[in-house]
Amino acid sequence: MEYGIEAPVISISGKNHIYVKFPLYQYEPMFNIKTVIAHYDRAPNSMGANDNSMVVYCMLEWATRLFKMQTFHNIRLIFTDGEELSEKGVSSQGSYDLALLFKKLNIVNDDIFIFDSMGR
């Protein structure tokens, strides 16, 4: 990412999620972390902007502003892969395995916000 922001890929069950890694000083353990999630993959033949591309753009812009903050914000940004529903059901979606990982890592007290289909 631009501005030196780290964005490691978290590969789980063939899905590649992107985690925006902010400096540690931007987190204050006294307060809950706000986890903001949006999927970056698109369904075939979708219109793009109406299939979450606009959310991804807005979150990337927000990430650059958060990164420049000199104080804490307690925000975690994750872009998920494999969110388009298939005939295999909800357990085949990328966020399902990500939620299992959160539970395994004891990430259970975050405030979680999921943005989808922000478009026209």
Description:
The protein is α/β, with parallel strands linked by helices. The protein has a single domain (2-115), classed as Zn peptidases (Aminopeptidase). It is built from two helices and five strands, in the order βββαβαβ. It has a five-stranded mixed sheet. The model has no long low-confidence stretch (mean pLDDT 85).
Distinctive features:
alpha/beta; Aminopeptidase; five-stranded mixed beta sheet; 2 helices; 22% strand; globular
Q: So, the CATH homologous superfamily?
A: Zn peptidases
Alpha plus pi helix count: 2
Name the overall outline: globular
Q: For the CA atoms, what is the radius of gyration? A: 15 Å
Major beta sheet, strand line-up: 1-2-4-3-5
* Total domain modules: 1
**CATH class category label:** Alpha Beta
How far apart, in Å, are the first and last alpha carbons?
Answer: 27 Å
Q: Which segments are poorly predicted (pLDDT under 50) over 5 or more consecutive residues?
A: none
CATH architecture: 3-Layer(aba) Sandwich
Number of beta strands: 5
Which strand-content bin applies to the residues?
15-25%
What structural class do the secondary elements suggest?
A: alpha/beta
What does the average pLDDT come to? 85
Q: Estimate percent helicity.
A: 10-25%
**Major sheet, described briefly?**
5 strands, mixed
